[in-house]
Amino acid sequence: MIELLLKFYKKKVISYHLVFRFMKVKYRLMRYSFLIFVISILPMIYGLTLGLAWEESRTLSIGFIFFFIFMLIVMKTMDVLVNNQAKTILKQKYNIEPNGLSWRNEKFEEMQLNLIKEYLISGSLYKEDKIKLLIEMIEKDIDARKLSPLINPGIFISLFVPIWIQYLVFKYRPIETEVEATVMLLSGTFLMLTIIILMNVIKRFSNEIKEIILTDDNVYKKTLLEKLKDILIVYKEDETNKH
């Protein structure tokens, strides 16, 4: 039952089937540009670290930074092009009027829910107990397939902090003037802010990553699980309206 529902979801409901398959070239370019952008983050951070630590490495550092900025511009350009065409597709094929900056809006999400709802109705599954059972089964399946993280964040932080403190002591040791100390402080702060901003950018595109970059069944199950929970709310509203 779960496998059939998941198969239907992947073939009829996901964004690729409804939108992206009508612009395959731009979709692939956006996918590849995002992948390269994510990959460019690591050498950029590495380059910043080298540039702060060793003056002779700053040429390499600047190269990594320029490549990162270039990929950021490419990714943003592709995002704008795909977003604009997606709005056109929604309007022409589904009569959904785009509003706001993003093509993905409440009406599109509602359309996805209605597709799943119709599937459940056709299979006599649109009942509260059966929807809850589907949710429970998917949750158990996700938990059973869940892998333990390769790096425990708590252990990593506890090991990294002493190393970072020793590094700062090493870097500040040759500093003799307040100006040099201020430059080092500002450089370190800039590096940390850059990392935080990058994490927020990746978080901003988390929904797109799920369906554009990742294609594992577990990812689809998680998004399907979220929609089934929404459908359960819709079912309760439908029942309330009947009475």
Compressed to H and E, one letter per element, the order equals HHHHHHHHHH
Oligomeric status: single chain
Helix fraction bin: over 70%
**Total number of helical segments?**
10
End-to-end separation in angstroms reads 31 Å
- Percentage of β-strand residues: under 5%
Structural class: mainly alpha
Please give the radius of gyration in angstroms.
24 Å
Layout: helices, strands, pairs:
Elements: H1 2-13, H2 15-18, H3 24-53, H4 58-94, H5 106-122, H6 128-145, H7 153-172, H8 178-204, H9 206-212, H10 217-242
How would you portray this structure in words?
With 243 residues, this protein is mostly helical. Helices cover 81% and strands 0% of the residues. Helix 5 crosses helix 10 and helix 6 runs antiparallel to helix 10 (217-242).
